[in-house]
Each structure stands twice: as C-alpha cells, then as structure tokens.
What we know:
The structure holds two protein chains of two kinds.
Chain A: H1 14-24, E1 30-34, H2 36-44, E2 58-61, E3 64-68, H3 72-95, H4 104-119, H5 124-137, H6 140-156, H7 161-174, H8 181-198, H9 203-212, H10 218-227, H11 229-234, H12 239-257, H13 264-288, H14 293-310, H15 331-345, H16 354-373, H17 376-388, H18 392-398, H19 410-413
Parallel strand pairs in A: 1-3
Antiparallel strand pairs in A: 2-3
Chain B: H1 6-18, H2 23-26, H3 32-45, H4 54-63, H5 81-93, H6 102-110, H7 129-141, H8 150-159, H9 177-189, H10 198-206, H11 226-237, H12 246-255, H13 274-286, E1 295-296, E2 301-302, H14 303-311
Antiparallel strand pairs in B: 1-2
GO molecular function (chain A): protein prenyltransferase activity
Pfam families (chain A): PPTA
GO biological process, one term (chain A): peptide pheromone maturation
Amino acid sequence: MADHRPVDGAGENPLAELELILESDPLIDEVGFIHPTQLASLSGEEGVDAPGPKNPRFWSRDGKLGISTEVLLPLYKEARRAFFDAVRDFRTRCGSGGDGGGGGVGCEVMKHSRALLLVSSDFGTAWNSRKLVASKEESFSMYMDELRLSELILSYSPKSDQAWSHRRWVIKRIAGQTSSLPEIIMKESELVEKIAERSKMNYRAWNHRCWLVSYMTKERVMCELKESKTWAGLHVADSSCFNYRRRLMTRILEDLCCKDGVSSVDYSFEVYQCWKDELDWDEILIKRYIGREGLWLYRRFLSLCWIRHFTTHAHSTSCNSNYIAEQTTDPSFFLDKELDLVGSSLVVQDDHFDDFQAQALYSTTYILWLAKQMPSPLEIELRQRLTARNMNDLLSEFCPNSSFLSGSSAEDTK
Amino acid sequence: MGELAGDKHVKYILSVEKKKDSFESVVMEHLRLNGAYWGLTTLDLLGKLDTVDSDEVVSWILQCQHESGGFGGNIGHDPHLLYTLSAVQVLALFDKLDVLDINKVTDYIRALQNEDGSFSGDIWGEVDTRFSYCAICCLAILKRLDSINVEKAVRYIVSCKTLDGGFGCTPGAESHAGQIFCCVGALAITGSLHHIDKDLLGWWLCERQVKSGGLNGRPEKLADVCYSWWVLSSLIMIDRVHWIDKEKLIKFILDCQDTENGGISDRPDDAVDIFHTYFGVAGLSLLEYPGLKATDPAYALPVDVVNRIFFGRCST
C-alpha cells in the first residue's frame, strides 16, 4: 500500500533525489530536518550558480545535508517500501544458492536502508539488514562505511540506541583482524566527546565510551584520564562523564590487582598518585562549582575506594578483590580532611541561592553515605569526630526529610 | 491538587490508534508492539480494556511473530526480545496466552542466552540487562523459567551492580533507574533479591526525588514521569517505598496531565505521548491512587492478570 503521491509540482520521487545526493557526496557527515521556509532561504543564498527547483526538498553543502520537514512523511513511506522490497529480493537470492554477493542486490539493501535510517534512526530491521549484507562481504572498507553511516545518523539522533549498538557490532567484527584497532578505539572515544558536547547526559553515548575501555591498554587508559580531564572540568553537570572517569579509575585498580610483573612498585605509586590527584581535583571543582550533585557522587566513589585500597586500617575486609596498594596512608588523616571539606560546605553563604542549599545537602549526604559504607571501626571513628565537631545538628538541619540517611537500619525507620 | 482525568486518558489512547498518518506516528511503527503494551495496559488499569476488540489485537500480534518464534515490533519487522515480551504481556492482558506455541517462543528466548548468563536482544548479539529482564519475565509468564540457566542469568545481573548499589546495562556501566527496574525485577521474579544491598540501593533511588516531587532517572537530570514507574516499582520490590514523599510525587504526576485532551507528558506543560501516559497511570497505581487497578511491580502487569496466570483465577 505504498503511496506514490507527488510531493510538489516537480512530482519527482524524493527517495531517488535523496539517494542521488548521498551517492554524489560521500563526505556528508551531518544531517538535520529543516522547515521548508528555512530550507528555501538557505537555497536562496546559493546564488546564481545553483538554480535549483522552486520548492527545494533537500539542501546540501560542505558536508551538511538538510531535509525539508514537508518531505519526511512521503520520503519515509517510499524508503520503507523500497527497503522491504530489496530485502525480500536479497533473501530470495541468498536462499537460491547464491551467497547474496555480486554486489547487486546487497547494494540495493544498503542504498535503501541508508535512506530509511536517515529519517527513522531506530528502525532496527534496517540496521540488521546492513549487518547481514556486511557480514557476507567481510570487507574492511565496508565496515568503515558502517561506522561513518552510524556517525551520520547520530548527528541528528544522538541517543539512537541502534546506531550506537551498530558501532559495537562493527568493532567486534573487525577487532581480531586489523592492526588499526587502537586508532579506531581512540577515534570512537573522541566521537563520544564530540556528541556529548551537543547532547547532554547522553546515557547511550557514555555507555559506549565505557564499553571501549575493555579494548584499551593500560597506557591508553592513563592517557584517556588525562585527555578527558579538561572536558570534564568544563561540563561538571554531566555526571555521565564522571561515571566514565569512574570506569577508567576502576580499570586502573583492576590492572593494579592483577600485576603482570612489570615494575609493579612504580605502577602502584603511579596509581596512588593518580587517585590522590583525582580527589584533589574533584575538591577544587566542588569548591568552584557550588551545588553539583555529580561531583559529590563522584567523591563518594573516589573516597570509598581510597579508604579500601590506599589506607591502612585494622579491619580491612577480607575479600581479596580489596587489594591494598603498597602506598598507603593513615585513614584518620583522610577523614579529617573530608570533614573539613564538609564543614566548609555547610556554611550557607547566601540564603537566596539554591546552590548553597544544594551544596550543604550534598555534602551532608556525602559524609553520611561514606559513614555507612566504610568498615565499621572507621564508621565509629567518623561518628565520634562528627560529634566532637558539633556537626550532627547541622547535618540533620540540611536533610530533614531523609529518614534513610539517619544511619539507622531500614526497619527502625518504619 | 487536581484529579486523575481517567476518561480523558482513555479517549486519548483510543485516538492515538486512529491517528496514523503523521510523520511522528509512522516513525514509531517499528515499535508498535511496545506501544500496544503501553496503551492497552493503561486501559486495563483504568478498567476500560473492554473498549478494544481483543480478537483484532490478538490476530495482529500473531502476524508480528517471526518464524524463529520471536516477535517483531510490527508485521514484517525482525524479532527482538523487547517486542517478544510486549507480545506475551498483551496476550496475558487478554487472557489469550493459549494462542501461542509456547515451545517455539521458549526456544527463541533460550537460544539468546550467552555462556556468561547474559542475554542478547536478538541474533546480532548486543547484550544488555534489559534483555535479561525481557527473557526472564517472558519465560516466567509462560512458566518455562526452567528452560534457561537461571543461576547464571542471576550471576550476570549481579555482576552489573555498581558501587552505589544500582545497576547498569553491562558490568561497569552507570546506574540508571530504567536498568535498575530491569535488574531488580528479574531478581524478584527469580527469587534472588538477597543479592541486593537494599539500604544502599534504596538510598540511591530516594535521591532521585527532586524538589518538584517528581523523580529523575540519574543524578543531575530533570524529573520525568516515566521514572515514577521505574524508581517506584524498584523501591516497592526492595521494600523501601516509605523513604520517598508519595504525596508530592502524586501531585507531580497529576500536574503532567493534559486535562483537556487526555494523555500524560514527561513534565508539566510538555506534549503528551502514550509512553508517559502509561508510566504516569502505572505510577499512580503503585501509589494506590483510588479508582485504579493494582499493578504488579515486577511483571509490570495488573495484579489480577498476574494472579490469573499463576493461580488460575481473576481476583478483582
């Protein structure tokens, strides 16, 4: 029941027009949907060199492609019809002895699925058909084309689950076969950062970056930490980015735990220093950007791991995953430092701004959370210090409704 | 405080089905089975499932089934666990599970379990704890949990636990309320909730409640009605729901209604959609809002439907 309604006076098939544009400019790396009036004014700027039709449906220049919102519906319908036809032909061809190769039919599937995905980014069946064709061809350049197409789709639909998943599928396929994998992984990491710039708190994007970590060497992980630091410092509200750092820091600890013999003392010191730097840096950010939840949550993680791995305490849990590094410090010293930070955060400098209230709340929940998670002798020590500093009343003032924070067990709070 | 505009929401859901020719609705057609689940479950919670022709729905669902036994999001689309669960849930709503070739569906799901206990969403291999939930919930409804390695499936889910007590989509991934629902739900169904540190997870979930009373899905995010379902159902399953302010949450959800044309949006004054309409109504049901059927937090189905499946009777 496909529609063949002409879109405007030209009556030309919008699908053919789009596919022609994509064919003639393989470097297009950004696509967007544009209102027809805006599209017309863009086309008007082209000057005499580009006469163009009266009612343009597409606009493309310098690697950018605009699609008129007016043409989306007919374009989608036509692309879907052409796509399903091509898939049917392809399956028939594969079924009748051939391997679907010879390019011909596979080409049609690739052509129409690309157009379809440009207007409907999560059309899973279209992504799947591309995987099917690509896995039959097994050519490296074809896999690279898939990464490019996925990037193009992400330019207008940065949260597309399917587009991100497609990248992982490609990387898994080529992982064992190419020496350029480290370079590809690095580019992937950069791509996430680029997309995260425009699309805040994008779970799918940051999850992809976390996934990449398992393909990184120890050295690369350290580089990633350094290279992504500036970005993180400028995007403190994007707590997903701090979760990425969490993943990197965890990986560093994992590498430390299964020492492969090479200069482990040096590496242990490097990790110790790295962890210390991260804690200091997070404190600087906390003081600079008042009331950011993500920074405080990141501190929970950093501090708990610090206590577990880099402080000497009598009752360290026996679980062997809790590796104690060779470099350690006195936990009391650490607790004092944290209490200083919390104490200074409880001073609400200006009642008119929510930020200071938020800072006080987050610092309170931070220290109470930490108390509950740390080994119990340390918890007792921390609670004694809170009392000694007269901080208990302040703490309850800033989170009056949170019975779960009181340190009592769940049953007591009922 | 306003009231739930139940009749308006029924009208809205029925109208979505008829409005099929806008670009916004056709680009959703690849997940129409999910849409059917959201819309029809909402109707059932509102006590209005009988306004729909069940034979028509069932026959359409069967046409979405692929020869492998899994279901696609619509006729002619590739199968995936996400749609297979919706198909089974909708059939359960209508008490029509007997139309299924249960062995076939079971075989499809079983084949997607990996060596480490995780589940791929389809033959292309993407792994995610969402798919673990789909598989486990589906098989439990079909009473075929014994066909997979439950122990390994549980172990994989537990390996996705984070330091803050929550769960992500894979090991090492960030906690996310939607993923937490999937993991807690799967652990609840398999009787494995003892793997959860309930106080720690409860703490994280409670911190999702923001000033407006609404819940967000992750730190630093805005409140969104859909998390009323994901956070709330998880809190109920781990018995910590008394840790949040329920009255404020009810008010937030009610404020997200379009009281003129029906439907619920993600936040007050945004455009409504069927997804948020379902999560808003289901959230209110979990909060025991009057006039709504009770919802099961693990199976994400009305309690009477779950009772019918497991006890063979309908307790209304």
